[in-house]
Automatic annotation (TrEMBL):
The keyword Endoplasmic reticulum does not apply. Residues 32-128 form the Phytocyanin domain. This is Basic blue protein. The keyword Signal applies.
Amino acid sequence: MALQGRCSANHAIALTTILVFVLLHVKASQATTFMVGDSSGWTFNINNWASGKKFKAGDKLVFKYNPSFHNVVAIDEDGYNGCSTASPSSKIYSTGNDAVKLLKGHNYFICGVPGHCDMGLKIRVNAS
């Protein structure tokens, strides 16, 4: 009988250890949602907003803005650098409350309204 009690205790410890690892994995794999521009939202002079933040693939960026004045264009690096929405891979968001899931690597976003990107309405985010 004493042997059975010891096996049950070892079994309980093993199950507890597995449960802890599973919970840690779930916590680590949960996506984070970031409000672009924080309380100011998607607006001018935002290009340094991502500095110092840690992003992972699967995290979400939420762009809040007045759709009468702005939009969001997910763009490639050339489009970002040239402030051009002409890329066939670009995707335009225009609801004023857009959630975009980050892909692994560099993610580029600009405002597609003429002149806005040139005035700093663009961000680059690197997701690990």
